[in-house]
């Protein structure tokens, strides 16, 4: 690699990072953005409050928060660590933005990694640059960079793993065994579900390398990579090592959430196809078709890259990894589940098209170039749509105005979290509920660090959050979770899901987001019956359309109900 390549890598990263910071403050805090665990790292507490995912991303964000403290101190934002802590509890926005900036950096790193992968596969600079740009601006690679979760870092680490494996196959140096171990360990430390891709990658590792090296040399090579993982993993996941029993308990909950034995293959496949072709969460029909046809390109005379066997092996790794994941999750497919697979699919589709555009004869060459150009246009249009939503005024402002103007004296139950100060009496009801459930299930709640207000804020309303359940636990029973219940990961309480229950507590206003889903699509029978009761009994007072559907928003309906339904 020479100076020109370094400049290209730097430019790809800089542009990629800039694209991901437009509208980074998109108006809400995502419930999966665990900045509280990252902030605890600064106090020396390395054990996360929840063990659903490995803690490495928390540690990285904790380091970023330390950098934020230094920058803020120089800039005069806070004088000392006490003022820094007060800023966190007063308005944590800058902490969320810092964590999102870290996520954006991981997302931006994918384009340079794609460039290196294309160069490893012997593409010239121009073609590799086109591949890197079009693969790097794949919709999921940018959309999920706006949420401070481990999914985007996982995708970057997965691409690094594929790059390290390819370097090991094509160049054979021992250092690439070490790099492969580091990359795989990073991926596992961001999200353990990547094991569904690493298992077929291990098979490919054996199939591709063992015949070349002989079994003795191969086992030494594999052992070198595994040794790196064994040494590095406990360091990157020290919070798990320090709290292993609790981690295992959370993984049992994760199994209940993720494994859908009663769901159909057909439904899961349809859902996957809808996500894969979604304009912001997936890669679209053209890139999907390009990925599926990649072997035809590899075995064609125009393919100039080295090691056809390696390309087919990597293509199969992605395909088999997706099949394994789909077999496990069936219809439980959150949008972020597939990002690591989708960005690799986009890369192989684009790589195949650039090979055709660079080496085939017309009209095939022009056709491939046209598809690449169209793909770039589609990605730019999707990106502009993403920016428009990110920068739009949140609908929560309108919902807040409606509630203040028309229902200031009512008791309110809201499914979306409201950007409205909460009356202390409402807070007390919610705390008592949590304490009651903690006692019922014999769990110890984590210490609450947020200062509680002593008096009512001027614009506070008496509103409470609709009791929540973690995604995947909607139909979980107490028997399924009895031995593994953790704070806030308990089953639904049937008595809470009747209109009479809330009427008896004086609730007369219900704020409901995504009503069609709750009436017709949710897997929870309790949800369907509860919201059908509200829909049939109460008056639809106001409707507010979503303006940021990519950023948590769903259409909201405000219901006004009689105090005592008949």
UniProtKB/TrEMBL annotation:
GO cellular component: a single term: plasma membrane
Gene Ontology terms: biological process: lipopolysaccharide biosynthetic process; protein O-linked glycosylation
Alphabetical keyword list: Cell membrane, Glycosyltransferase, Membrane, Transferase, Transmembrane, Transmembrane helix
Chief location: membrane
Membrane topology type: Multi-pass membrane protein
One GO MF term attached to the UniProt entry: pentosyltransferase activity
Residues in ArnT-like N-terminal domain copies: 89-220
Subcellular location: Cell membrane
Parts of the chain that traverse the membrane: 56-74, 94-114, 126-147, 154-172, 178-210, 222-242, 282-303, 310-330, 336-354, 366-387
Keyword Protease belongs to the record: no
Protein name according to UniProt: Dolichyl-phosphate-mannose-protein mannosyltransferase
Organism of derivation: Shimia thalassica
